[in-house]
Design brief:
This protein is mainly alpha-helical and about 450 residues long. Helix content is about 80%, strand content about 0%. It has one domain.
Length: about 450
């Protein structure tokens, strides 16, 4: 058996994965910075931002789903060196993203209180979260455009540029968080609203930086003229691949947000504890999710070169790495428990601290389930042009099993908070048998590129 050092697939994955890990690490750092800084403002601000940010989580899933459709095609067309097809695909994705971003931005400006009422009936949380949502509207618009462009760059293996753009946004976000939360350098101290202002400004600057990078790029540009380029074949392929991926990510994202709805109605102690858990879990999943993203890019490029046997072997190597990184992620969460409990005790009640400790212990093994499923569904299967299986699997798992179970346990059986949380965290393991069987069948492996695209239009 080849060692990690001798295996060329591992070498190629590690070259891609390091920038992605840096990007994911900074993303998690921004989330943790929000919680750390708001810890000095109070438990209400932490809880309100945690709930209001669920909409950003849903929107991210939309962007990720649309970006996945673009990336599935672009990665394989990059392997084929068809840059014109890549630009047309980017234009198609941007059409959808702009429409959805405008919808979220408009809702955040006009009906933020109603949006908060979905998650909680606590008036103080609703008012604080509504102010946060209003200031987030600009971020939603800028974020969608830059996310698609950076996704296309990553699919072409240009993860360093993509990471640099995200480093810029995340670094600015942390700095501006401090300025607007605490009122540094003469700025007003805005608390929770300051988090949203910082996010919006950093996303605007990121978009401007993307435009500057695009102007110097020789082949892959953020060119809005491609919004109006029509290609029936590529549009059909994009819809066929993106809609299941989008449906998968939105279905999963909304269902996961239902977890917050359930927890949000179990009291502010449960919400505050979960706010810290999300941050720690994000750090624990950085490495394994980075491997999944890098592996998906690499597999797409290999399949686009029509090296199907090599792609199958690469998928096996990717799974071995996933098991290792999943175990490492669980270890990170376990090691983080003492310092996190010590820090959180400054603002959380004794009950919230008790919830936090058990929730973190549950996540030490939950990460392995998430790592395997993410690598296979969002990495391997999608790289091979199969987004339909993940949509069906996740929709059944979340909406037939996990969400109904959570509501039943919380509001019908009235189980204690920690039992409800434990049951919600069984979702990843329930689908393992079907996901692993589909992987072993090899039915996910397809070359989805086409020849003579522009002669047919």
């Amino acid at each position: 058996m080849k060692t990690i050092k001798a295996n060329p697939i591992y070498s190629r994955i590690f070259k891609l994965v390091l920038p992605i890990i840096i990007q994911n690490l900074l993303s998690a750092a921004v989330s943790s910075a929000d919680v750390i800084m708001l810890n000095y403002v109070g438990q209400t601000s932490i809880s309100a931002v945690s709930l209001a940010s669920q909409y950003a989580g849903i929107l991210f899933m939309v962007f990720y789903g649309l970006g996945t459709g673009a990336a599935m095609l672009c990665a394989q067309y990059y392997g084929k060196k068809d840059f014109r097809a890549i630009q047309v695909i980017e234009g198609i994705a941007l059409r959808f993203v702009l429409c959805i971003s405008l919808l979220f931005a408009g809702a955040s400006l006009l009906i933020p209180c109603q949006m908060m009422q979905v998650f909680t009936n606590d008036r103080e949380l609703i008012l604080t979260g509504a102010l946060y949502l209003r200031f987030m509207s600009l971020a939603y618009l800028c974020w969608g455009i830059s996310e698609i462009y950076l996704t296309v760059l990553r699919s072409a293996g240009r993860v360093v540029i993509s990471t640099a753009m995200n480093v810029l946004a995340f670094s600015l976000n942390v700095i501006l968080n401090a300025v607007f939360i605490f009122g540094l350098f003469g700025a007003p101290a805005l608390g929770a609203a300051g988090v949203a202002i910082a996010t919006s400004l950093s996303r605007l600057i990121q978009l401007l930086a993307c435009l500057a990078v695009s102007a110097k790029s020789p082949d892959i540009k953020l060119d809005f003229r491609y919004l109006f380029v029509r290609n029936k074949v590529l549009f059909s392929d994009f819809i066929r691949l993106s809609l299941p991926a989008l449906g998968n990510d939105v279905s999963w994202g909304v269902a996961f947000s239902m977890y917050s709805v359930i927890i949000g109605h179990l009291g502010t102690d449960a919400v505050a504890a979960n706010s810290f858990v999300v941050v720690v879990r994000n750090f624990g999943t950085i490495l394994c999710f980075g491997i999944a993203n890098a592996g998906g890019i690499l597999l797409g490029n290999i399949i686009g070169e029509n090296k199907m046997e090599q792609a199958g072997n690469a998928a096996k190597d990717l799974m071995k790495l996933t098991i290792i990184t999943g175990a490492i992620g669980g270890g990170i969460v376990l090691a983080a428990i003492p310092p996190v409990l010590g820090y959180a005790s400054a603002s959380l009640s004794e009950q919230a601290i008790r919830y936090l400790k058990i929730m973190l212990l549950i996540n030490t093994y939950y990460i392995m389930g998430a790592a395997v499923n993410t690598t296979l569904i969002a990495g391997v299967f999608r790289a091979g042009g199969d987004s339909r299986f993940g949509f069906i699997c996740d929709t059944i798992d979340m909406w037939v099993y996990a969400v109904p179970l959570g509501f039943f346990a919380a509001f019908i059986l009235n189980l204690p908070v920690l039992w409800v949380y434990f049951l919600l965290c069984t979702d990843e393991f329930v689908k393992w048998p079907w996901v692993i069987r589909h992987y072993r069948s090899g039915k996910w492996l397809h070359n989805i590129t086409r020849d003579d695209l522009f002669e047919k239009t």
